[in-house]
Write a structure and sequence with these properties.
Low-confidence stretches: none
Order of helices and strands: EHEEEEEEHHHHEHEEHEEEEHEHEEHH
CATH architecture of the largest domain: 3-Layer(aba) Sandwich
Largest sheet: 7 strands, mixed
CATH class of the largest domain: Alpha Beta
Mean pLDDT: 89
Structural class: alpha+beta
Radius of gyration: 23 Å
Strand order of the largest sheet: 6-5-4-3-2-1-7
Strand content: 15-25%
Number of domains: 3
Length: 365
């Protein structure tokens, strides 16, 4: 049976949500018979091994777990008495921050660790909402018009808002879970919304607010080399935009699976997910978020490369389904394909030609 390292936490506004997802994965994989290493990333930075943790409540206070670092496909405990604990597969449960933005994926690939989660390229491309819009446009997928403004660019933000038209939505570019998202109906509200966004992030996205829209989700997972799509979900909300509280604090699950939407809209959602996953070396699970406008048009909103609860609920509704889903992720883990690099032999030559007129080693030194 494989030994699985589950990474969760991280320096992120979604730290607590990540702990919930991570401990869910830890306990379900243990129940499936795996030996699991809970790798907790504290808000203060670094990595720790929380071997004795079994509940999300174990992380409500800043407890001192042993600090570790990656050393190949192993966790190495720091300090005088170093101990290496090898593992076979990594599962990324870090929402936001350098867990979801491709940094952790790249670190795992650098150390030769098979991963059950999306690649660095896919993660980095969709962490920043303004960059994600460029990628989606490049794939020919429908997105709302938007403008990205940097911290302090209030004058430019006013000009861009006038072009887009009020009301509009203001979002921090690199945050998730609806944190810092606000609707601005006029210029004064725009300034307030931007002030909030810039407290949390260095840039913000402006886009039109769609009244009477419907919020749709669809997840994709790679199994045995095949792309599997979930049913389309409609998420219900009583707010102008879906809020953090509705996502995580409400005791009532407010969604419809499968969504009662026109067949053409469902086809557009699923075709869009296939296009995104097909454009990248895809593995793991992702969730796409869409808007269905009142006129019937579908717009791709964003892609979550570490979705809440790893989106298992879109593929089943019992704990057994969730366990089997996570087992499938682990068993389909892989290293990104790497071609053997070409040896140029340049360093073995006695003379260098080219850059800035350096003709030989003496001049380089």
């Amino acid at each position: 049976m494989k030994r699985v390292a589950v990474f969760f936490g991280g320096v992120s506004n979604e730290h607590d949500i990540s702990v919930l997802t991570g401990m869910m994965a830890v306990n379900l994989l243990k129940s499936a018979g795996y030996e699991v290493l809970p790798v907790f990333l504290p808000l203060s930075g670094g990595m720790t091994l929380a071997k004795n943790a079994s509940r999300a409540e174990d992380f409500t206070e800043e407890k001192r777990y042993p600090a570790v670092r990656l050393s190949g496909a192993a966790l190495e405990r720091k300090g005088l008495f170093r101990r290496r604990t090898p593992f076979d597969v990594a599962l990324n449960c870090c929402h936001g921050g350098m867990g979801e933005d491709g940094t952790l994926s790249a670190l795992l690939a650098f150390h030769g660790v098979p991963s059950a989660s999306p690649s660095m390229e896919l993660s980095a491309s969709f962490m920043d909402k303004s960059l994600a819009k460029l990628v989606l446009k490049g794939l020919g997928l429908p997105v709302l018009p938007c403008a990205c403004v940097k911290e302090g660019e209030f004058a430019r933000a006013k000009r861009e808002a006038a072009k887009i038209g009020y009301p509009l939505v203001v979002k921090p570019c690199r945050l998730g879970s609806s944190i810092g998202v606000a609707v601005a109906k006029e210029e004064r509200e725009l300034i307030v919304a931007l002030a909030l966004a810039f407290r949390l992030d260095g840039s913000a996205l402006l886009e039109p607010y769609l009244a009477h829209r419907r919020d749709l989700n669809c997840a994709a997972v790679k199994r045995g080399g095949e792309l599997v799509l979930s049913p389309v979900e409609e998420v219900l909300s009583s707010s102008p935009v879906l809020t953090f509280g509705e996502k995580y604090e409400s005791t009532e699950r407010r969604s419809i699976i499968p969504a009662d939407i026109p067949e053409e809209a469902a086809r557009t959602v699923k075709a869009s997910m296939e296009a995104v996953c097909g454009a990248f070396e895809f593995r793991g699970v992702v969730r796409g978020d869409f808007f269905l406008a009142q006129d019937g048009k579908v717009y791709f909103n964003e892609l979550n490369t570490v979705p809440g609860s790893l989106a298992f609920y879109l593929f089943g509704d019992t704990l057994t389904d969730a366990r089997d889903f996570l087992v499938s992720l682990v068993e389909n883990a892989a290293l990104p394909p790497v071609k053997q690099p070409l040896a140029t032999g340049l360093l073995s030559r006695t003379r260098f030609a080219g850059a800035k007129g350096c003709k030989n080693r003496a001049r380089v030194i």
